[in-house]
Amino acid sequence: MKKLTKRLKIVGTLSDKNKLYNLKDAITILKKAPKLKFDEMVEVSAKLTVDPKQSQSASIRGTVALPHGTGKKVVVAVFCKGEEEKRARDAGADFIGSDELIAKVQGGWVGFDVAIATPEMMKDLSKLGKILGPRGLMPNPKSGTVTMETAKTIKDVKAGKIEFKMDKQAGVHAPLGKLSFTDAALYANAVTLIDAIMSSNSGGLKGQHVKNLFISTTMGPGIKLDLAEFRK
To answer: Exposure of 36 by Cβ count < 10 A (0-12 exposed, 13-18 middle, 19+ buried)?
Structure first.
């Protein structure tokens, strides 16, 4: 803990919390921080102008394919039957099934990062709502995880397609890659992700709905980005 606290202090000296940074400079600062024993994830966080109390009527949600992926091995579970099982297996799904897979989840197992389902499975999957819902794992048509194109969806997710959505505090948090990525790869991923967040209006939001934007590592403080760099 002392080592971590010392690291945070060092990182704090590399940036000014009252200053706005362009993306390239912010990435350079993240790279200068003392390294930990694991490869940290770099994340983007956005604070929206939405009143959390009104979040039921105004929100953002979307998916975006990061050009360099996240660097994380994504474990995919597919709930399907019949011929779709073979398609899912050929596409690289890690867990495939219908009733038996549902029963396994009901028993407390949630060993996957993304769940995909065919439309016919959604009636049976409703019984998993209380388990998958709070974890953000419930298949949803809006995120493209309820689909008959299971093979394509699996490949997209494995290649780096991620979902982002507003939380109860009117914030959006999403990973964009490992700290060990090159500066260019982190920059390309960040621009792609931020552009998607800035342009999203899936919940009826109008105008400039992003109030503040930060980039950080898993165990580091956020560096505030200059929104003007991304406004078009």
So the answer is: middle
Do 121 and 63 belong together in one domain? no
Q: Are residues 105 and 135 in the same domain?
A: yes
Q: Which of 173, 174, 163, 220 is nearest to 38 (CA)?
A: 220
| CATH number of the domain residue 80 falls in | 3.40.50.790
Q: Where are the alpha helices (DSSP H) in 23-149?
A: 23-32, 83-91, 99-106, 122-125, 129-132
Predicted structure pTM score: 0.80
SS3 for 222? Answer: coil
- Residues 181-231 have pLDDT tens digits of 999 999 999 999 999 998 886 555 555 788 999 999 988 889 999 999 988
